[in-house]
C-alpha cells in the first residue's frame, strides 16, 4: 500500500499530550514542484500570447519606437506633429506632475499608440497580400514576375520566427462567391450526370431560385461573413457533424495507421509509453503555441485554429444536437484494457511521466487480472450507437455518484488509450492484413474505443499503434500533423533499449493506475446492449480493401507533367465507370485553410471532360493520341476546380450556407433542397504526408505511414482515401458495404489498379519506348 501512503500529504494523531503531526516531505515536494510548473506554464503562455498578439511586430519594437519619440524631445524635432504636446496638456493630475514628467508620459503614450497603429497596418497589409491567389493558378514551375514580387513582399511582412497562432489575425476571411457563378458551376457539374429532361428541369429550378430567393439569402450570408471569422465553419460543424443523430462510428470517425514497414519495438507497454510521452511533448508545444505554422510554398500561412481542440476534448451527446467540450490542463489519461477502465496520472513532481515510467504503468494495467464490473465491458458501445439513446442514458444514469465521477474522468481526460489484445498491422506475408488492421482502427469491437473523444490511441500487443479520430473538431491533416511529430519523436529521439524497453530509470514509487468504478442499473445495461447490437451490425457491414500500389508513384506522374491528384481522380472515374457502368456524383475534399478558420470544400470530380476521357478509354475506335489529349483536358479541368475550391470559389459550401439561411428565414427552396439531397456515391480524399519534413524518406524509406481512411458515405457507394508516400508508392484505403450487392471493395481496388496502369500507358513515347522510373519500364 505504498502508493496509498504517498497520496497523503500529512497524518495526525491525537494524544493525551496534544496532536502529533507527521508531514510527508516527498508529497509536499511534489505539490511544490507542481505549483512551480503551473506558474511557469502560465508565464510561458502569457509570453507567447503577447508575441503572437503583436505579430508581425515584436515587444522590443515598442521600446524602439519609445526611444525614438523620447529622443525627439531632446533634439527638438517634433516627429509627432504636435500630438505629444496635446497629450501632455490633457493628462490628468497636471498640477502634481512636472512639465518634463508630463512630456515623457506624453511621448510614451504617443509612441504606444503609434506602435499599435503600425501593428494593425502591418497586419492589414499582410492580409491584403494573402488575399492574392493568382499564384495558385499558375503552371507548376512557372512563376510570373508579379507572383515573385508578391512572394517577396509576403516574406518581408511575415516577420521572423512566427509562432503557431502568429498569423491568425492576418489571415483573410473566406469570401462569399456570387450566386450566379456558384449556380453556373453547379449546373456544369451535374450536366454529365443528367439526361436532357432532368438537366432542363434542374435549370428551371436554378433560374427560379435566382429570380426569387437568391439575392435576399445572399445578403444575409454576406452580412454573416462580415460579422464572423468564417461564414461556413460554425454551421458546417453544427449541422453536418453535431446535429447528426446516427452513429458516428464508421459514419463519421476516421482512422490513421502506424508505420508500414517498421515496428520500433514489439513490447506493447514500451511502444505505448514512448508514443504517449511524444504526444505529451506535442501537447506542451501546442498549448504554448510553439509549433511553427504550416506554410504553403514555405511562405503562405495556413490557419491553425483546428489544432486548439486536439487534446482534452470530447463530443458530448445531446437529444437534438451534440456539443464539443474542450478543457485546459488535463493531467490524466483513461486506459481501456479487457473491459476495465483505468485512470492514469501523466504528471509527477511537476513534470511529465518519462517513457520508462509510462511503460511501467501500462505494464501494471496489462498484468491486472481483475474482472470487469457489470456493464463495464461494453460501456463504450454507448458512443458507437445512436446519439439520442446515449444522450438520454447519460442524463439518466451518469448524472450523479460514482457513474458521474467515472464518466467525468473519461470525458475530461487528455485523450483515450485502448490496449488491445489482438495483434494488427501490415504484414506482407498475410493476405489482406491491411484490411483487418483498418477495420480494427475504424470500429474495433465496437466497445473498445471511446468514439466521442477527440481521438482514441490504439495499442496492439505486437507493438503497432493507430488512431481513431472523432471528426467534428478537425480534419485529417490536423491529426496527421500530430502523428508525424509523434512517430518521428518515437523513432529518432526517444528510442528503445536493446531489449525493446523505453530508455530511462524506473520509478516504482509511482501510484498504481486507478480503476474507475461504475454502478450501472439494469435499464442502463439494456441501453448498452442495444447500442452494441446496432454498432456491431454497422461494423460487420463494412467491406474494406487496402493495398499498396508500387508500380509507380507521384515521381513518375510528375514527369508526365500531370498533377498527381488529378491523375488519381481520373483513374477513379475510369474505375468507377468500369465497376458500375454509370457515372456518379463524386466528392473530393479540398482544404480552405488559407482563410481564417477554414476547413474544407468539395471538388466535384465527375466533369464533362472526365466523362469524355473515360468514354474514349472504353471506345476501341479512339486512338492513343485522342485519349491522351482528352486526359490532359480532364486533368487540367480538375486541377482548376481544385484551385477554385482552395481559393473560396467552390460550389457546395456556398449552397449549403444558402440552404441554412433559407431555413432560418423560413423559406423553402426546391432547388437548394434538391442540391442538398443528392447522394455522393463516390467519396474520396487525399491524406497529406510529410507536413513537417521531420524524416528524410529518401534516407529512411522504411519510415513511412500508410496514412488513413474512412467508412463508406453512401450505402451503395465507395469511400476511397489515397496517400502519396514518397515518390514511388501510393496507398489506397477503399470501403463499401457488404449489404449492397452492387459494390465490392476488392473488385473496385483491382479496377483502380488497372485504370492507373492504363492511363500511365498513354504517356509512352512515340517510338514505343516507355518512361523509366527506378529501373522499371512501364508500358
From TrEMBL:
It is a multi-pass membrane protein. GO terms for cellular component: mitochondrial outer membrane. It comes from the Eukaryota. Its main location: mitochondrion. It is found in: Mitochondrion outer membrane. Belongs to the carnitine/choline acetyltransferase family. This is Carnitine O-palmitoyltransferase 1, muscle isoform.
